[in-house]
Amino acid sequence: MKFLHTADWQLGKPYARIQSSDKRARARQERYEAVRRMAALVQEHGVSCVVVAGDLFDSSTVDKSTVSAGLSVIGELQVPVLVIPGNHDHGGPGGIWEQDFFKSEQASLAPNLVVWQEAKPVEAHGALWFPCPLLRRMEPNDVTAWLRDAEVFANAGGAQLPRIVVAHGNTIDFGSQSDVEDDDSAATHLELDRLSADAFDYIALGDWHGAKQVAPKAWYAGTPEPDRFPKGEGYAPGQVLLVEVGRGRAPQVTPLPTAGLAWHRVEHRLEGSEALPELTSRLLEFRTNRDLLQLRLDGHVGLDGRKDLDELLDKLEARLLRLKLTDGVALTPTDDEIAALTKGEDPLIASVAQHFIQLAQDPEQAAVARAALQELHAQLR
Q1: In this structure, are residues 89 and 12 in contact, taking their beta carbons and an 8 Å threshold?
Q2: What are the residues facing 330 on neighbouring strands?
Q3: CA 101 to CA 104: how far, in whole Å?
């Protein structure tokens, strides 16, 4: 049987670090559009269902408009959508899944949605499922522990059906690959190596936001819409997994793209103002209102170069959904710029310019000194 494995939709994510309210709204809307792109893949590949391995919603307290919008796009998928609660949208007391408004809107907008809140085998849609829902946000226990009992599989029935575990939690320390801005991984550690490899055919995981295979039969789907700046190699968000699985056969897993927005990291060293055109050409290729950029700059430029660089950064701030900037570019006026400032007819201006040139070498004073020198330079041109 074939199904789509996905996770970590986090509908309603606030994107608090995007300053513009309009841009925050665009980023939030793109998470719904990713589900709509998923609907096209459902039809294209003829899958029997979609499995969401936790964190469909960003929290258990999302507002009603988020609930309605989310259920509406789920209804558009037109196949069963099988969900377990994750750490963001946990089940149990206080969870979103038992709220009257959610139940009413689910019946109206998404009758194809099934939420598994119990750890017990379920035979459905051509497979035998073993859901491992999170019933509280901070769950210290391994929610797959019940699957270590061989009797669970022996008594589950469906002997010829593929057996699929669905769980949400961490399996390894991803360390430097996580983004400290969004370090919201589940507290639950899953010890998959303690499960019998022959007892199941696929483990559908959620929590890590990049698609990643962590065992021969175990994959993280990642989030279908990227939501953070990546670190390290091999981080692959913005996908769903097309899984073809049968009892006793190795699963065939194919990542399929679903991302609308792109999150980039760029590090660049400027060796003088003459290096600016290359950087400008590179950065202005990013898409307006579609891309987010973490930019780290160092090196040095002159006064005219600093003016051009500031204009470039202003454009990026306006165009991109977010610019996260670390600006370590030193101001080093060219010989001609220094001569124009310090050897003019007015000795007072020359003295002031020399003072600010010296201050510009002090990291704590550099910003003020740079602004003063640029203003002085502009007045003398």
Answers
A1: no
A2: 300
A3: 5
Residues 303 and 168 in one domain: no
Phi, psi of 121 (to 5 degrees): -60, 145
Backbone angles phi, psi at 34, to 5 degrees: -60, -35
Which domain-ending residue is among 257, 287, 320? Answer: 257
Residue with tokens 């050897």: 343
Same domain? For 44 and 129 the reply is yes
Q: C-alpha 174: how far from its chain's center?
A: 15
Which residue, chain included where needed, has tokens 């003088």? 272
Q: What is the pLDDT of residues 74-91, one digit of tens each?
A: 999 999 999 999 999 999
Contact, 211 vs 43, CB < 8 A?
A: no
Contact 162, 1 (CB under 8 A): yes
pTM score of the predicted model: 0.88
- More confident position, 186 or 198: 198
Residue 188 pLDDT > 60: yes
Count: domains in the chain: 2
CA 260 to chain centre: 12
Check residue 365 and report its DSSP letter: T
Distance CA 200, CA 380 (A): 76
Last residue of a domain, one of 257, 287, 316: 257
Residue 149, C-beta contacts closer than 8 angstroms, at least 6 positions apart: none
SS3 265: strand
Whether 143 and 90 have beta carbons less than 8 Å apart is answered as no
In whole angstroms, give the CA distance from residue 294 to residue 281: 17
Cα distance between residue 189 and residue 210, in whole Å = 17
Is residue 86 within 8 Å of residue 206, measured between CB atoms? Answer: yes
Query: What 3 state SS string does 134-199 have?
Result: CCCCCCCCCCCHHHHCHHHHHCCCCCCCCEEEEEECECCCCHHHCCHHHCCCCCCECCHHHCCCCC
- List, for residues 47-70, the tens digit of each pLDDT value: 999 999 999 999 999 999 999 999
Residue-range definition of the domain harbouring residue 77:
2-257
CB 6 within 8 A of CB 240: yes
Q: DSSP 3-state assignment of 375?
A: helix
Q: How far apart are CA 61 and CA 186, in angstroms?
A: 17
pLDDT value of position 175 = 54
